[in-house]
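Fold sample X.
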Amino acid sequence: MLLVEDSPSDIRLIREALKDAPLRIRLVIAHDGVEAIDYLRRCRSATGRNPDLMILDLNLPKKSGHEVLAEVKSDPDLKSIPVVVMTSSDDKDDIAQAYNLNANCYIRKPGNFAEYEKVMQAIEDFWLSTVTLPHQVPLYSERVLPRTA
């Protein structure tokens, strides 16, 4: 999971909320938008895979969350990454823009640790346990099977 977040306190809360998760989650932190895009490109070229999930703040230094989202969703190699926007903004324009840029969901940052635990548990339950992620879909070569009589 890639967390794109510049706030040390939010990073700490998310790490703590995921600490006792039943699934082993490898959390990679990018502290700004440029670092996030650089990581995604390095990860893709080194492993041929993308992170299973990206949690993206909108208010980032160097490159905004909206810019990161636009770049990810317009890149054929990255666009299948599910992106959960988790930000402090409840501005209707931010929400509309995130969905117009193909965010998979938009969550307002929780106000305290107990709420962070609930939100992170819901993200884990849905995105990492319930849905089928792109890397889990087997790739089959295209071939025409002979007709049987």
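Fold sample Y, listed below.
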Amino acid sequence: MATNTNKRVAIKWIRDGAKAAYIKLPNCYICGTTQDLELHHTHGLTNLFEKWAKEKNYSIETDEDVLAIRDEFINTHHKELYEDVFTLCNKHHQQLHKIYGKSPALITASKQGMWVENQKRKLNGMESVKLVSEEQSSTGDNRSKQWFSSFI
């Protein structure tokens, strides 16, 4: 097949392979509306796939290239594809992307999650969640080198 000329083409094949297992909730995680719902991945699929393919030295130039590695990518990034997601209404999804950009950097995944949590808490009249680094944590829990939340 011909070389992909549109960067969205490669990710379309990934989404097509993964979407059967997506779980989109019946309401917005933030406000609870049931209208105009969309699935938001905190790890943008395009960035995640391109980074992974580059690290593995895989070509993603043709449809065949992408299809040949699709299942491996989906299995490798199960958590990012199926767990690190939020069902959001279009309004909140657009607000999130106004803050983090159209294609958020992968390093912002935890911050996006905290933004979603904070929006939900604000609507429910609760205190915000703040990010602290592992070194600042008073729990001493050494689960990962990633950001995690603690309540103020």
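Sample Y note: The radius of gyration is 17 Å.
Also: Residues 35 and 89 are 7 Å apart (CA to CA).
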